[in-house]
Amino acid sequence: MSCVLGIDIGGTSIKAGLFTPEGKLVEVKKIPTGAIDDEKAFAEVCEGLSSLVVGAGFLPDDVSAVGLDIPGPVDDGGRVGMLPNIRLDPDGLKTAIKHEFGKAALAFVNDANAAALGELWQGSARDLSSFVMVTLGTGVGGGVVTGGKLVCGAFGAGGEIGHITVNAGETRVCGCGRRGCLEQYASATGIVWLYQQACKADGGEHPKPEHATDTITVFDACRDGDACAERAIDQMCDTLGLALAQISCVIDPAAYLIGGGVAGGFDLFAERLAASFRSHCLSTSASARILPCSLGNEAGMYGVAYAALQEAAKGE
């Protein structure tokens, strides 16, 4: 019996899921890591993965496919681009994993694209052939699926919806070096910033976020009727709805799936976001649905496992 590994790579740890080929998650293991860019680090990762496999009753040769999600661009050929936020040698790690699991096919996938594939395989998008995954976290990412296939783009930048311009007059600089990107308004950091600006303008007493991505405080304040929190969420929905309307002009998806940490407040902003989208989009796209993701933080693990299975099928 074969199994599949789906690996979510983070800055301080990796989260590995062991799956059946049918998509059942058998077990999850968190493996602490630092930089994954030398032989010692590769060995520690492989040791953790082997422990997961053997602990679940499998042998290394039972692993038919291994998928890894990457916080950066990955092109259609699986080549990894620049990784500004993590120290990782993808080629070195690939070689080490291939040595550990000699019969496994390997696949690298951008993290937001991986989440889209996960939802397509086992989540909210199982019955959709065309949708856009919108990941709202510290930043804003996206994954585009059309005709049941992921669109990575020629340079690996397909789905970088966080850098659609929604305010050409913005003076603040986005992390990408441009101004007025969606990420500056619809990410966790963007929502907290909008709330703080509203509180500053109001001058009254309001709950204070504990850190730059503390949307929980903002959402709780909104539920308690705080006008500044209401204003921030309205602004977030207006800019996100505008961006989705622009995407619909190009992709015309059947649905948008909202994931990431900010999706914890989906009940608060779902109707506002839908109204904003309808106010900005062409009438022909107005019936596109806006749905919450169902796999949560495990969507990426599911997605890379699915991508790796597809890669394995090519070699059969």
What does this structure look like?
By secondary structure, the protein is α/β, with parallel strands linked by helices. The protein folds into two domains: 3-116 and 297-314, Nucleotidyltransferase, domain 5 (2-Layer Sandwich), CATH 3.30.420; 126-293, Nucleotidyltransferase, domain 5 (2-Layer Sandwich). Helix content is 39%, strand content 19%. The protein is built from nine helices and ten strands. It has helices at 39-55, 90-100, 111-122, 183-186, 188-202, 215-223, 227-250, 266-280, 299-314, and strands spanning 3-9, 13-19, 25-32, 63-70, 105-110, 131-136, 140-146, 149-150, 255-259, 289-292. It has a five-stranded mixed beta sheet, with helices on both faces. The chain has a five-stranded mixed beta sheet with strand order 8-7-6-9-10, with helices on both faces. Helix 5 (188-202) packs across helix 7 (227-250), helix 6 (215-223) crosses helix 7 (227-250) and helix 7 (227-250) packs across helix 8 (266-280). The longest helix has 24 residues, at 227-250. The radius of gyration is 20 Å and the shape is globular. The two termini are 16 Å apart. Pfam families: ROK. InterPro entries: ATPase_NBD (IPR043129), ROK (IPR000600), ROK_cs (IPR049874).
Brief description of this entry?
This is Glucokinase. With 316 residues, this protein is α/β, with parallel strands linked by helices. Helix content is 39%, strand content 19%.
